[in-house]
């Protein structure tokens, strides 16, 4: 375990004191100039067996997965197999008429206007969990959109489920297989996978917990947890370190393509939005920050990067708190504590 200081004198451990002990925990790392300057684990990956979170614990990434889905799409574009200007009605049979105006790039930057599929799935639908194809089936039955494509920004899990289906259609491979062949295996991310129950298994799995009346209860899956494109990837800190370095060194995509992922998108009227392709964007002390939070049943995560400083913060947790947007503040508290 790489760490900057002992826990007794560790300011980050103080920030994360609520993750310590016999409760759902966290894996935390800070990467600077291609090296870990901090890497520590807290709490439990599985309460029932008292299995501690450790260096190789794999957490469900939730929406941190979207950067991998976006990368898969850009790899297909690099291969000449798709064009980001293709419309939904050209790609999918029986897509509603409004699909002629929705392009792949609208899916990538959350300006498609598509309905949120989660609104159509009851929490009790656990026996046959919804998958990405089911998201498409839901959209085929919707007659309207929130707004015309490109007119507004509205974060869309639906869009990223459709992106996973586009990867499958034009690569000829399953989404998990494509990710493994084109991203995870080339980068040596041997513990990272898009999880499909009954097909593969998550090694060193951290299970998710929700607090109910002051007690932690395992609630690892929901009715929508089987949808892959918007949040179905599991990974750990060592593998995400490899991914972080691949972004710095343009190992999979051209440097200009990566920079495009990190560039604010524009609405039809030219208004900039704080999202690129698979990444949220902000500034801190005048420096560009690219990041993504992840929130799903009993997991809260953030991957926070300042590319110009070659500095990254990873926080993976297996609990249903805090609210997703608060993970940005938590990452910045950790950053401040290390200065």
TrEMBL record:
Pfam families: Beta-lactamase
Domain (Beta-lactamase-related): residue spans on this chain: 17-326
UniProt superkingdom: Bacteria
Signal peptide coordinates: none
InterPro entries (UniProt xref): AmpC-like (IPR050491), Beta-lactam-related (IPR001466), Beta-lactam/transpept-like (IPR012338)
Protein's name according to its UniProt entry: Penicillin-binding protein E
Encoding gene (name): pbpE_3
């Amino acid at each position: 375990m790489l760490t900057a200081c002992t826990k007794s004198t560790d300011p980050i451990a103080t920030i994360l004191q609520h993750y310590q002990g016999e409760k759902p925990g966290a894996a935390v790392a800070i990467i600077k100039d291609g090296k870990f300057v901090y890497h520590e684990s807290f709490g439990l990956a599985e309460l029932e067996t008292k299995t501690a979170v450790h260096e190789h614990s794999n957490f469900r990434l939730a929406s941190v997965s979207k950067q991998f889905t976006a990368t898969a799409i850009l790899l297909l574009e690099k291969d000449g197999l798709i064009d980001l200007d293709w419309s939904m009605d050209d790609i999918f049979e029986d897509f509603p008429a409004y699909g002629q105006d929705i392009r792949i790039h609208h899916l990538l930057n959350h300006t498609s206007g598509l309905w949120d599929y989660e609104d159509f799935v009851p929490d009790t639908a656990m026996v046959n969990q919804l998958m990405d194809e089911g998201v498409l089936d839901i959209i085929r039955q919707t007659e309207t959109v929130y707004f015309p494509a490109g007119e507004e920004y509205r974060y869309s899990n639906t869009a990223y489920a459709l992106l996973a289906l586009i990867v499958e259609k034009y690569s000829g491979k399953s989404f998990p297989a494509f990710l493994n062949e084109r991203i995870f295996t080339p980068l040596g991310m041997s513990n990272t996978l898009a999880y499909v129950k009954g097909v593969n298994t998550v090694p060193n799995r951290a299970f998710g917990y929700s607090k109910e009346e002051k007690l932690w209860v395992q609630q690892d899956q929901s009715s929508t947890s089987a949808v892959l494109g918007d949040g179905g990837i599991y990974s750990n800190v060592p593998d995400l370190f490899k991914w972080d370095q691949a972004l710095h060194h343009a190992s999979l995509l051209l440097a200009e393509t990566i920079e495009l992922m990190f560039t604010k998108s524009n609405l039809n009227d030219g208004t900039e939005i704080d999202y690129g392709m698979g990444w949220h964007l902000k500034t801190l002390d005048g420096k560009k920050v690219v990041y993504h939070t992840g929130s799903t049943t009993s997991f809260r995560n953030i991957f926070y990067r300042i590319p110009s400083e070659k500095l990254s913060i990873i926080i993976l947790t297996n609990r249903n708190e805090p609210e997703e947007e608060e993970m940005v503040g938590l990452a910045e508290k950790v950053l401040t504590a290390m200065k």
